[in-house]
Amino acid sequence: MTTSLTRRLALGLFAGAALLATSATAQEFPTRIIKMVVPYPAGGPTDVIARIVAEEMGKDLGQNVIVENLAGASGAVGTRSVAKAEPDGYTIVFGNNQTHGNNMFLLKEPGYDAIKDFAPLAGAGAFEHVFVVSNDLPVKTIPELIALAKKDPGKLNYGSTGVGSGSHLATELFMTRTGIKMTHVPFRGAAPLVTELMAGRIDVSNSTLPSVLAQFQAGQMRAIGLASPQRNPQAPDVPTLREQGITDADAESWAAFFAPVKTPQPVLDKLSKTIIAILKKPDVKERITKLGFTLNVRDPEAFKPYLAKEIQTWADVIKAANIKTVEGN
């Protein structure tokens, strides 16, 4: 047997063994606990949805799936930890347009690349944004908010879930379109923002609907406008911005599941199929949509072009609003 033939035979056997090993890995996966990182504090809408999916994943995969909240640096701390995690499928992240888009333009050193370091598992859908105001603020409509803001530019403050978050950029878009100026107060997630808004220490927020739905339904704050083309069935009495004369400031914040990019493809496929199947379960759909989240489930191939388009859209908003980069520690 010639040397070249021996080498080809050896390479063939090696490739076959690697294929069998990969197949076996996918069949056996998971054999231990899976960690789902939420890069925001516990209690917010992202956290709640992640916990619903994690609970179902545990049932379907036969292994516990725990949620770990790693907040900080506009979601970059938790997201960075997953980018650097062992790419074996046992560490995934529930990210969004901030962690896997805007941070690339707004943080000087996010510590990861949203495209190169991650493989999408499933697009879940989007959070619609709703303008809510403190009960102490004397406005009940969007035109009244605009009028009040124009009386004393910068006096009103608006809260967001962090620099580069959907609530931040959506409000910057709104101010650009309406010509008003309010002062930005960023928070580390939805829960502390909502607390301060209810206490009257924050005037306004263009928050994701799930983060404030229960509070304005309970009369703890006032909802004055939905930044969406149509009204939401969970809040049918809240008029849209378009109904109030603002036609070009709609915004939504998408959310999706990701794994480290070098995770073996069979493992990615198993995680992806599991999550997609869970998001399509009638009881899960009901629990999530009741939060005010709009489900729009996409597989990885459908999500990738959507992701690219969204990143470009919000990069343009950031440039138009002249938002400066900040430290990403």
Automatic annotation (TrEMBL):
Q: Which Pfam families match?
A: TctC
Specify the superkingdom: Bacteria
Q: Is the Methyltransferase keyword given for this protein?
A: no
Report if keyword Signal is assigned. Answer: yes
- Signal peptide range: 1-26
InterPro entries reported for this sequence: BUG, Bug_dom1
Which keywords accompany this UniProt record? Signal
Its family remark reads: Belongs to the UPF0065 (bug) family.
What is this protein's name? Tripartite tricarboxylate transporter substrate binding protein
Q: What is the protein's species of origin? A: Microvirga puerhi
